[in-house]
Amino acid sequence: FTVLPKQNGEIAIVTGGAKGLGYETVRQLTNLGVYVIIGKDVKIRLQCLSDV
């Protein structure tokens, strides 16, 4: 596997980040220093996208 460099200050939007594969993705991204926005439903996803 590849070790990724720190991504301090980057922003990621992850849908379905509350459980399963999405949760693990969020966990790994935050370990790399990424700010993560987690969207669960369509309204929240659209709001997150419009805010960024």
From TrEMBL:
Gene3D superfamilies: NAD(P)-binding Rossmann-like Domain. It comes from the Eukaryota. This is Uncharacterized protein. It comes from Sinocyclocheilus anshuiensis.
